Amino acid sequence: MVDIEVSRYVDRIEFISPGSLPNSMTVEKMVAGQRSPRNPLIVEMLRDYGYVESRGMGVRTKVIPLMRSENMTDPIFDATEDYLRTVLLRKK
Asked: CB-based contacts of 91: which residues, under 8 Å, 6+ apart?
């Protein structure tokens, strides 16, 4: 098992989540709001206990709008067969 990496730089924060995107998910589909959780059982449990509102909607409804309103930038998503890298740029 590989841990998630979080790196802080002067101009950005990077998150690297090991493993490929599930099923036929792509960055484009993720940004558009398509849902495909890596572990549906964990997601359902978190929803049942009230920790998440609606699964798979955070990128489209929270991350992108907040980055645009606070930093006037879009997050950068880079998906490979080995990881998903998310970059949040610092406000210029």
From this structure: 70, 71, 72, 73
**Nearest of 30, 17, 8 to residue 88 by alpha carbon:** 8
**Cα angle 52-57-62, degrees, rounded to a multiple of 5:** 90
C-alpha 49/C-alpha 46 separation (Å) is 5
Residue-level length of the chain: 92
> In terms of C-beta density within 10 A (0-12 exposed, 13-18 middle, 19 or more buried), how is residue 84 classed?
buried
Distance CA 68, CA 52 (A): 22
**Which secondary structure element, helix H or strand E, spans residue 68, and what is its range?**
helix 64-71
- Give the number of C-alpha atoms closer than 13 A to the C-alpha of residue 66, restricted to the C-beta side: 8
Decide: 5 and 15 in contact? Cβ < 8 Å. Answer: yes
| pLDDT tens, residue by residue, 3-22 | 889 999 999 999 999 999 88
